[in-house]
Amino acid sequence: MLEDRILFVDAEAIVIDKPPGLPVDRPRRGGDSVSDRLDELKLGFHRAPVVMHRLDQDTSGCLLLGRNPKVVKKFAAAFEHGEVEKTYIAVVETALQEAEGVIHLPLAKVSSAESGWRMVVEPHGQPATTRWRRLAVRGDQSLVEFRPLTGRTHQLRVHAREGLGAPILGDPVYGKPRLHMMLHASRLVVPRGKKDAIDVTAPLPPHFAEWADEA
Fold first, then answer.
1. Domain locations in the chain?
2. Contact 51, 72 (CB under 8 A)
3. I need a surface site. Which of 4, 75, 144, 210 has the fewest CB within 10 A?
């Protein structure tokens, strides 16, 4: 039950720890999704909450929902103006030599009948910026903290591959698929004017176990 995965709740908002493998929106092919289960998160309200942003199906972690129309508009504006702070933890397929940096690579969507759609680096695409910091290195893999300053589709996944020279471990589109993609939305900070900001951290899921002491 999604109610069992609530990290934060008040009269305005809910933040859940979305499990990996569960899409936010209903897939075209059908199947389970957060959107189909929003009634589980009414928690006594007449209206179901509204999902305020997206996480990829294979990404786990903090997902914000607004609980009334007024606050939905407020949260949407905060995302649009870049006021929401998002932190992700990932494992990439390289031993990073640098300790930190900033990736500026514009992105665009391409599609074909054979391979479907994906995001690519495109000089005339939408601006995309990501701050990153190396947390640990083990063999030929690194644990990385990502802080996206823009919110483009698949931004971190493409920036890892093209900006750091290595895909996120287990990425089924931009790398080599495995049971879990190692990308987790670990922290979400949402400003609320005079009210205290929402500041929530989602624990690392079990498939990050060997890295738990490094995050």
1. 2-211
2. no
3. 4
Which of 208, 207, 191 is CA-nearest to residue 199?
191
Which pair of tokens denotes residue 87? Answer: 């932190």
Residue given tokens 């979305």 in the structure block: 18
| Adjacent-strand bridge partners of 85 | 189
Q: How far is CA 178 from CA 143, 156, 172, in A?
A: 17, 18, 7
Give the span between the Cα atoms of 95 and 30, in whole angstroms: 39
**Exposed, middle or buried by CB within 10 Å (0-12, 13-18, 19+), for 38?**
middle
pTM for this model (two decimals): 0.95
Q: Which residue(s) pair with 201 in the sheet?
A: 187
Opening angle at CA 93, ends 210 and 101, nearest 5: 100
Residues in a beta bridge with 137: 142
C-alpha distances in Å from residue 1, one per residue of 63, 116, 126: 15, 32, 37
Q: Identify the bridge partners of residue 117 per DSSP, sorted by sequence position.
A: 111
58 carries an active-site annotation: no
> Per residue in 123-176, pLDDT tens?
999 999 999 999 999 999 999 999 999 999 999 999 999 999 999 999 999 999
The candidate with the shortest Cα–Cα distance to 34, out of 46, 52, 47, is 52
Instruction: Could you please state the CATH topology (level 3) that the domain comprising 2-211 is classified under.
Output: Pseudouridine synthase (3.30.2350)
